[in-house]
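Can't attach files on this board, so I'm pasting raw text. These are the components:
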Amino acid sequence: MSKTTIKNEQNFVKNKPYYESVGDEVAVFTAAYENQLPILLKGPTGCGKTRFIEYMAWHLKLPMVTVACHDDLTASDLIGRYLIKGGETVWIDGPLTSAVRHGYICYLDEIVEARKDTSVVIHPLCDGRRLLPIEKLGELLEAPGSFCLAISYNPGYQSVLKDLKQSTRQRFVALEFDYPDAATEEAIVIKESGVDEPTAHKLVKLGHMTRNLKGNGLEEGASTRLLVNAGKLIHSNVAPVHAVDTAISQALTDEPDMFQAVHELSRSIF
Amino acid sequence: MSNQSRQNLLYRIRIQKDLEKIVGPALDRLSNLDAVISMIANLNDRQQVFIYQWAGLIAESNTELAAHFVSFAPEAFDSMIDADVQKWIDLFLKNYDNHGLGKAITSLEDISGFTIAQKNKGVRCSLQQTSVFLQHFIRGLGGRELKISGNDETYTNTEGLFLPESISLFPQPKQNFTVYKLTAAHLWAQTWYGTWRIQVLEKLTAEYNDQKSLNIFNRLESIRLNYRIARDFPGLSREFSEFENRDPKVVALWKLWQDRANDLRSPTATAIDTIGNIRHFEDIDMPALQSYQGEIFLDRIRETMLSRIEQEQIAFQKSLDKLRDDNAPKDETDDDFVAKQMLEVSDGDSDDGEPSETNFQLTLDGQPIELSDDLKNLAGSIMQDFGEIPDQYMDPMEQGEYSDALLSQNGESEGDTDPDLNETGTFQYDEWDCTRQRFREDFCTLRELVVPPGDEGFISETLEKYRGALRVIKKCFEAVLGESRPQRRQPDGDDIDLDAIVNAHVDMALGKDMSDHLYTKYRNQERNVAVMFMVDMSGSTLGWVNNAERESLVLLCEALQLLGDRYAIYGFSGRTNKRCEVYSIKDFKENYSLEVRQRISGIRPKAYTRMGVAIRHLGQILQKTHARTKLLITLSDGRPEDYGGYKGQYGIEDTRHALLEMKQSGVHAFCITIDSEAQEYLPHMYGTANYAVIDEVEKLPLKVADIYRRLTT
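---
Top answer:
Structure tokens for the assembled complex are below.
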């Protein structure tokens, strides 16, 4: 039986990702990693969860496997499956298995989106056992010391059907993320998009305005990511109001009244 | 008398007889009857038929109104096109429905006003069209929640923005829309940039409480606000100048005022500085207000602010007390210790003095505390009034000083007539009038109330009584869940189907085509159902029916817990269109908790059955949930009926129309009834397959769960 492995060097985060620390999250993550505790990142979309984990992978000099969870993701997609190749069945490791085998960081993004059975397969990995049972191979894979499991989820918008079970969440060290304060967010927008300070100031102000609307017609306010996107367009000489319309307003809502409100808000500051 | 005039006379007599037949004696009370009849005689046949038809329909509501209609109809046909005559009728009928005869006749007689409004319609922008946008826009700008509502005067009372019902100042609708936006933004700026700090209000009331001084204050304050807006919202400021009055005299006057009050055009100027300037402007001409400027009503602001300040102080102190309690070390429950904790507030460096949550930090014994969103909003609102959090707000609350009524200060629950019910909001709904074939706009006023908890013993008694039956019901429901089996022989899937592989190999060995359906798929047939139960709480359910309804709900909830479907339970009742009521028993977000059980037990018969409005309201709640299948199930004991004409065909047609509206928006409706005559009207209302009649009340609890299972599998 042949084995397909993911090449180590491809998964390294080579360049230092830009990450603006807002508290002691780097220290907490490092401590949790050293104690072999799995980590749960909570926070609204686009506030920097994925960027943080990339930064930590770089910081800890570990390769990272990211799985973007979707509602069709099953346990076999994570662990692996037999495929048929040339009349023979061949076992293919899934991303989680290969991360455990080699001691990487495995990052399951938006875990609640995945099917329910996936959260159960990670349970034995997340407590003192640190084991991954691979039923179909009859193997019990023990995670090496360098392996680290991190998952993320957004407690804000998911429906009641997609809540994280207590038995799952109580296995993790939870780090809560939120949008950074105005000054930090401005620095991030400047650094990421290349716009000048006054423009960044206005973008952040607009971000706060849309966050005022959260729960009153908008499911979420504009994330830092959206502000950066708008900044990039502005930096590439798209007119500011138009850039905001396309990068922020349209991304936030389909409802005409709400779109117009965000549009007029951006017109009022630019 | 010539032949011609004799014929005319006969013709007029015939018209008068016809109309008398339709309208009745009210027609004879018209002072200008002869003139009206001859004017009608001059109209063409189609117009005459139109008048006859509508006079008849209106006479069913009110003969006086019908007589007035007849007397003004010729003038209406004379001064507008036929399609507008229809709109004119709709307008005064709407006024009749909502405000009574007086208002209806006033609007009926104001034909010239109606024609002007009709002409302006092309350029006009109405508040109705813009209010949703404006609400979002103002909320986005930040600060305390401001409610947008229509009013003849344009002003703010610091909790609401009052704007005209429509604006037609400019030739383009888009321009009038912008005037709305700018007016709202300008009023918002008053609340945001400290025009109505408490110090300002006190000073104005004490020293300048006359109309002239207030007018001067309004203009000067506008100069200050425009400067602040220009700094923070350059885009808005550009639009302000676009919409300024272009009359050279007005422009010159504003220029003069701006120059004289130049000290107000600074980021540090406050409304107190504006007051200081009033004296210097008493002797010069006042410029006209700009199109986007509102007026100032000091007494209204005062009233709103004082009551808010009182409530917010209590609410704030109460929240802080709670914070102190929550943060008290667990092993120290000693009251003295709690009192010793130091809560401090730092307003941060608000360089330009505008309130915002970001420069507000609360510390307890030197440790910063994370604030809840509610408390943040409250603190923000207090800072809008004071510019800071006053020291006395930080003191612990004296015991027994507050009442819970004051704390529910979201503005929605006020003066409840029924003391044991908590009201959570009022809503307006249209009602379908089958005789007019039109909606009566905003005809029904509906309140949402919460059922007071009842005796919990009822639940355990029911569970005991139906113990055996419940076991059967649960088994059936479990079978529904078990129906998700692995699907074999799929082209792709989670696992390999070994049987299929073996077969395929056999096929291959025999030289046949090999199937590529070699996988199994574990596809849970995920249930994605949201169901709304609408329970008849009319007076006729008194006794057995009410008991059976409550028992059904208990059994159903037990069974539904198993299925995991999202469900809500509401009761409905009411008396007249002004007092329609729905009672929340369980909303979609709630669990099947003790409270819900107590509410089920607390369901009691109320008044009548006005079904249409309840369906519209509950249907809307249902539509807000995300589910593939949405179901509205009515438990009822009879036909729709309410005080004041809502009976027979009218009630049935309105209900049917409401159900059709639901169907169009993807909601399936189903009715379970115990009315043995239901065959007569239910097929018409719900459709032939969408109802079930249960002949014995005692069977209702057993049947409901069974029907539900059949409906959703």
